[in-house]
Amino acid sequence: MSSKSDILAALGSGALKPHPLPQVEIAPRLDDLVGQFEASVKAVGGTLIRDNALAALQQQVASLVADGQQVISQVADVRGNRATPEDPHALRDINYAVIQGELAVAENGAVWVTEQGAGIRIAPFICENLLLVVRAEQLVANMHEALKRVNLENVGYGTFISGPSKTADIEQALVIGAHGACTLTVYLL
Amino acid sequence: MKIALFIPCLVNQLMPQVAIATLELLEKLGHQVILPQGQTCCGQPMTNSGCFNEARSTVLKLLNAFKGVDCDAIVCPAASCLVAAKENFHEFDNSAEAQAVLNKLYELTEFLHDIAPVGEFKRPLAYKVSMQMSCHGLRMLTLAKATESMTPEYNKLEALLNKVPNIEVVYPEPHDECCGFGGTFAMDEGAVSAKMGKDKATAHANTGARYVVGYDPSCLMHLDGMIRRLKLPIETRHLAQILNDAI
Amino acid sequence: MATTTTANHAEKAEIFCRDESRVDWHSKALWLLRQKRDRAASSLPEWEQLRELGSQYKLHTLSHLGQYLEQFEANCLKQGIQVHWAKDGAEHNRIVHEILAKHQVKKLVKSKSMLTEECHLNPYLEQHGIEVIDTDLGERIIQLNKQPPSHIVVPAIHLKKEEVGELFHEKIGTEKGASDPTYLTRAARQHLREQFLSADAAMTGVNMAIADQGAIVVCTNEGNADMGGNLPGLTLHSMGIDKMVPNMEAASVLLRTLARNAIGQPITTYSSFYHGPKPGGEMHIIIVDNGRTKALQDELLAESLKCIRCGGCINTCPVYRRSGGYSYNYFIPGPIGIAVGAQQDDTNTTAWACTLCGSCTYVCPTKVPLDKIIAYQRRLKAEQGKLPYGKERYMPIVGKVMGSATVFNCAMSVARFSLRHLPHAMLKPFSGAWGKYRELPKAPKTSFDTWYKQNRSK
User: Fold this and answer.
1) What domains can be seen in chain C, in order of their start residue?
2) Mutate which of A5, A114, A179 to test chain C, going by most C C-beta atoms within 10 A?
3) Of A18, A138, B17, C350, which is most buried with the most CB atoms under 10 A?
């Protein structure tokens, strides 16, 4: 406890005069949210499916399963061929994960995924390919609007996912597919 | 207007042509121009090195040269020295007299653009000039929008040059990267400074302009040394020299 | 002045500059990031407003930091997160080791954390028999290459792809001569996948800690923090006290500027909110001071703690791009490295590795007045009598010559003054290095003073 009290005591004599808590007063850009979102998803290396999205997803997953791909689905009405394990390591061979997102952000193509939606925290990362489902009415303009709606009350873990994993650590050359999913498809219902 | 010239040491000793052009230009524009005696240096070589004690007497000497001088404005054709003078006057003297001097201090570009705006110039100059957007004038005196800023575009140097018939204004790429002078930096960090100077001088020459034009003599002197070493087909000119030719 | 065997900034920079084509390559790679940043920033009409908000949120938090740290801790505890406090790097390392030892951890996967660099955690844990695997691709490259990071966001920016190819061939068995970035990245993915799956614990840095939630935010593009953090049961997160923000609204501001300013992306691929241990697991947060409360005792240095480590100032810095990340004698290079590390530089030169051009200050997403802090660091060094490059000898001379001559004396003796004193005193800055790289100024016949007397004085 002593380091804590040392730190707090030292903070008591800080030189900064008290600054007031600011507030964000930025008008969200509301024109053509779906169009903005689609452009953002594309810009970050993902794909957006917006026409008959649920049927397209069901068809896609059915054909993947028929091909023998390992698919875990956490979305009702979409049937994969793998159950949610207790040990996350058991998902090491997953090819596709289908996960329900709770919120989508037009300005950056991000989709908010919680541990409840993912079923198990590792699911959106350990899969080779990630299929995210999000409802059009859950699309917001920007991060201010998004974080107003995020409620962490019963959420131990949640993540905004914007595109497939990527890196540019070798000579600034962009490579899609670092440690997380190598492809990302967003189905907008 | 009655104008007192602030001619920093570098301009006085090594680039008198810039001071002469400033004087002549202001006179031709109808101002009465005086040169208060006793000016040496703004103290920047010392204060930029952290040596405030060593700067004190120099700064106060410069400040005293302007205290009580009967004028409407104090104008300086060297942006970096002007910024340093402003900061250093404030550092060493908080009197009302010092504040009166501070209130009248202007860099030449801002004076011609904001304080006593000039009209169109008469004589056409049919050549290309490459803008030297030196750092202290750009970011501390805000003579133009810096490329880092996402505010509306403006550029007082370009606005003034655009009043000269036929002149063509171009920019080096990148637009406003530092030339590497940095006062004593040019000596302390010779290799990096020289590489920055080389890149900047080359970028100016690549525009095909006849002159590099700027508001900061120290950067122009640095670029001139670089241009002559590299034998690049371009020369440096101060804004005052161009406008004095055009009037 | 203290003598030291470490090369000073100018010496290291001079060596870096000898290979000019490499300097050009390095400078261009970083300038590309600046250009991407400019495009991303300009796409938001509210960009400058976001910078101001970022600054205000940080100033507010830093000026109420004790209160927010306590609120944060209380909320973490409610979530079942264990919170530890460390006053310095040594205590931080000790805490981390104790937790790992208790769980008999043999292998730790770690995502990027400049704080653990600052605390020298890796060598400490390795000495205690724990294998540490850095999982960010750039960090893994330099870990395999036994080098420190040369940049805080792109730590292997100094290496060419051929050099990475050679390294990977030797260390992880890629094909000899292969240097395609996609091929090398895929190989690293496979190599690190095995490390993730066999790790006993994971550790991450922290981008933001949200006081009223008891949550931390970790941002990566690669997904390495989340691959690590969501596999083993035990996770640790190290944060400086400066990572605190009051609420989600503040986080929303920084999440809009961080990646745009760093690399020109609208947001990092993953912005993850860790708000409690996974079922059956343990989550630890270590809150570290290590000199930050000291910086807060100074009104100007305190502003350096507004930094969110985007690296934007480093990318724009014309000196960094031409001197490289290893020239600064500190684990953080560039403007922010000077601002927070100059006092620890025994060569007393990094504070002068800057032209005070101010580009960094204009780029900064939280308006850290970097050029002012760097100038101030010089002043602090001068007050300690720690001046570099012979300044302690020549500065008093310059000061005396410029300041002592009387008005009349000065006016009348310009010629004599110039001939006798300038080459030694005033022209000191222009000798030596000046003439080595540039032509000396063309000396005019007279000074302006003299001209004025001849042409205007009546």
Assistant:
1) 9-18+311-383 (no CATH), 35-294 (3.40.50.10420), 397-455 (no CATH)
2) A179
3) C350
